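Saturday, quiet lab. Running sequence design on the structure tokens for the scaffold JK sent over.
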């Protein structure tokens, strides 16, 4: 028996980040009642989605493109406070204002085919038999760690950007930062101020974007990611196709040589990294700023993946199972995209519930 007294809600939402809360809000707007008609399950210990796990030096003032959740603006935020605190408090207030009754911490192990056309959502607080599923699990729980020869022999410390503790822990150390995305450059610029030496390594030369990034450019970037999802390929982040913004801080770092990029090394040694041409670098730390993958392993029993490795999605609906919607996936991974996807999924699910008998 589940905590809220029924094991058969019409809809289960997995994840309470931006996309999940948007979906829950719009489900409620259609007349569905939280904890009776739909339930929101979140594995995190508190409100805030992935934001609650961000490093302390990522203040709210450094956050780019944070869009308010539907129905409630985020106003008066102190830009000097950690984004984890600001956005965590905002999400908490949002959940309480709209009575979304998020269940946490709840881990979802698997979603399987049930009886009578229902899906079985197996969780740490029980099994839910639901008519529709909105999956909003994001990527934070699946940091991507590349594998290189000799990795296990390295005597220093290896960590992923998901566990980045702030620059202070790297004081006086030799640090190799791997990855050409926004997080990698932000970490690198912070660490360079306190480290003995830093080295920036990427698989491809980084692309810095001059000028503004308007709606037209944004739509083009989203369309590129959307096409991959439509073809059933693993999604890329929107940021991966937009390039890195060339702001004043980045310009200074380039002038100081902090952003002098090295090509990807061939192997890892006990004392550092080595290239095929014989060059070596000694290091105390390797920081893998190598991104994340979609956290959808719990959907594996439904066999939604295409031969290309991804889940084929049209709008928000999984092509292989119309009862399943993915939000915050691929083109809707941005905050504004998550809002729109949550609304679209809620409307589609509402139509499904009206046309398919309970």
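Result came back. Writing it out in full:
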């Amino acid at each position: 028996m589940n905590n809220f007294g029924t094991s058969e809600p019409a809809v289960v939402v997995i994840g309470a980040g931006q996309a999940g809360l948007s979906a829950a809000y719009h489900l409620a707007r259609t007349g569905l009642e939280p904890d009776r008609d739909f339930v929101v399950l979140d594995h995190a210990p508190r409100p805030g989605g992935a934001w609650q796990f961000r490093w302390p030096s990522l203040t709210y003032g450094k956050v780019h493109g944070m869009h308010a959740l539907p129905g409630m603006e985020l106003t008066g935020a102190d830009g000097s406070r950690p984004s984890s605190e600001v956005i965590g408090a905002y999400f908490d207030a949002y959940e309480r204002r709209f009575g979304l009754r998020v269940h946490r911490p709840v881990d979802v192990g698997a979603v399987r085919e049930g009886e009578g056309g229902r899906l079985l959502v197996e969780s740490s607080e029980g099994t839910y038999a639901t008519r529709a599923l909105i999956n909003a699990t994001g990527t934070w729980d699946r940091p991507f760690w590349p594998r290189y020869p000799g990795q296990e022999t390295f005597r220093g410390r290896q960590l992923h950007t998901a566990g980045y503790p702030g620059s202070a822990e790297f004081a006086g150390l030799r640090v190799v930062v791997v990855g050409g995305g926004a997080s990698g450059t932000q970490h690198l610029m912070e660490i360079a101020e306190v480290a003995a030496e830093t080295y920036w390594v990427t698989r491809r030369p980084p692309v810095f974007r001059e000028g503004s990034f308007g709606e037209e450019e944004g739509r083009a970037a989203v369309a590129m990611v959307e096409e991959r999802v439509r073809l059933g390929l693993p999604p890329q982040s929107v940021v991966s196709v937009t390039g890195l913004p060339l702001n004043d801080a980045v310009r200074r770092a380039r002038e100081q040589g902090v952003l002098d990029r090295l090509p990807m090394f061939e192997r890892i040694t006990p004392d550092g990294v080595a290239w095929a041409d014989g060059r070596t670098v000694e290091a105390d730390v390797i920081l893998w700023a190598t991104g994340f993958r979609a956290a959808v392993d719990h959907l594996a029993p439904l066999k939604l993946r295409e031969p290309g490795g991804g889940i084929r999605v049209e709008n928000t609906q999984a092509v292989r199972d119309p009862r399943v919607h993915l939000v915050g996936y691929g083109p809707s991974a941005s905050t504004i995209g998550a809002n729109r996807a949550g609304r679209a999924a809620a409307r589609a699910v509402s139509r499904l519930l009206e046309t398919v008998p309970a």
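Notes for JK: The radius of gyration is 22 Å. The helical segments are 18-29, 83-97, 182-192, 215-230, 248-255, 335-355. Ask whether to fix the surface positions before the next round.
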